[in-house]
């Protein structure tokens, strides 16, 4: 492996200082100190890559239970990168210099993507990638194919007086940009439509995916579907205290900012003010069902037995009059007014305005 350290008789302190100035003016690298062992010297390029950056790259491409290509643990990435930057780059534009699918002559890892028919791939297991755009891809259990290819993506930092371009490492990974002649899309979410899928070598990754999906479905069900059955465990009977509330009748359609979120109301709806000054609305038929009108803009709740339960998850309910009320676990009570008819009351307000029977 050739580094600046090997060529100290040819590289001046002034050039090392210039590379440091490039680092200091780069928003992503500023604060890093250039160590001479972090520099890989090629014929036309000098690549800045710290040991920490190399460790991060190898760590990202290590776990065979997750989708992606993997580096062999014995590979010396500095030696491999030194070989790569002495070859002509595949692309050099827009401040990026790339070597894509470069064959270095000996196996360096395993390619994590394989090609099948789109029909076959469609029936494989879904997996959400944990990084980037978190795309959904398809995975299957099996062995990855060994590869002697590597792809290297770098960013240009500047130019030395010798004419060499100084680069910093963005990423490196085993394999190239096509599989059996099919180009890999930039968006991994499009892999499956091209017949491309990821290999994993242990089924526990599939179990992890299944459990994540199951938890998502459970959360979705709880969030969107408060049902009468939800009240079977942990609920209690309650009714409202006979406290006087103020009300006015809406002269026109509008919206109201309530403790449970923004609420739309229509002309003729009752706008009520609770004991802590909180506002909420309800249509006339619901008002007549739940309130005794005391006249002069005052009313009190009828003693109607209801069922309530403290929320054990975050979500929202759709009221019988069309309002959407948000709630959070431990902070709100869900009050069941009747079959399929629910409301939301903040915990402190519930304690003030309701009586547990």
General description of the model:
With 357 residues, the protein is of the alpha+beta class. It folds into two domains: 4-218, no CATH class; 227-356, no CATH class. It contains seven helices and 29 strands. The protein is elongated and about 90 Å long. 27% of the residues are buried. The model is unreliable at 1-9 and 217-224 (pLDDT under 50).
Write a brief structural summary.
The chain is α+β, with helices and mostly antiparallel strands.
First CA to last CA: what distance?
81 Å
Number of strands: 29
Count of discrete structural domains: 2
What does the main sheet amount to?
6 strands, mixed
Shape label: elongated
Pick out the low-confidence regions: 1-9, 217-224
How is the largest sheet built, in terms of strand order? Answer: 1-2-12-11-5-4
Structural class: alpha+beta
Give the helix level as a range of percent: 10-25%
Enumerate how many helices there are, as a single number.
Answer: 7
Radius of gyration: 32 Å
Strand proportion:
35-45%
Output mean pLDDT: 87
């Amino acid at each position: 492996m050739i580094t600046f350290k090997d060529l100290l008789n040819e590289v001046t302190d002034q050039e090392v200082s210039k590379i440091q100035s490039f680092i200091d003016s780069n928003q992503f690298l500023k604060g890093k100190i250039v160590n001479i062992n972090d520099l890989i010297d090629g014929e036309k390029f000098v690549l800045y890559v710290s040991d920490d950056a190399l460790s991060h790259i190898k760590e990202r491409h290590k776990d065979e239970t997750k989708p992606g290509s993997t580096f062999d643990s014995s590979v010396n990435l500095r030696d491999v990168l030194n070989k790569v930057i002495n070859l002509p780059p595949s692309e050099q534009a827009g401040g990026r210099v790339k070597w894509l699918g470069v064959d270095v002559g000996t196996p360096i890892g395993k390619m994590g993507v394989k090609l099948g028919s789109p029909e076959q791939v469609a029936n494989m297991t879904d997996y959400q990638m944990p990084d980037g755009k978190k795309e959904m891809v398809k995975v299957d259990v099996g062995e990855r194919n060994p590869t002697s290819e590597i792809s290297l993506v770098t960013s240009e930092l500047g130019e030395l007086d010798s004419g060499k371009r100084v680069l910093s490492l963005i990423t490196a990974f085993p394999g190239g940009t096509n599989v059996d002649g099919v180009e890999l899309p930039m968006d991994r979410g499009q892999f499956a439509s091209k017949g491309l899928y990821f290999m994993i070598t242990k089924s526990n990754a599939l179990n992890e995916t299944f459990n994540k999906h199951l938890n998502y479905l459970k959360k979705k069900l709880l969030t969107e579907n408060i049902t009468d059955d939800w009240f079977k465990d942990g609920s209690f009977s309650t009714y409202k205290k006979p406290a006087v509330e103020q009300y006015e009748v809406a002269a026109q359609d509008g919206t109201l900012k309530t403790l449970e979120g923004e609420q739309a109301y229509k002309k003729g709806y009752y706008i009520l003010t609770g004991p802590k000054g909180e506002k909420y609305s309800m249509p006339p038929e619901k008002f007549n069902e739940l309130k005794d009108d005391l006249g002069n803009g005052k009313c009190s709740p009828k003693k109607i037995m209801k069922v309530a339960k403290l929320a054990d998850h975050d979500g929202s309910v759709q009221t019988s009059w069309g309002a959407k009320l948000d709630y959070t676990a431990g902070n709100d009570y869900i009050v069941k007014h009747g079959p399929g008819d629910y409301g939301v009351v903040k915990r402190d307000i519930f304690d003030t305005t309701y009586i547990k029977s």
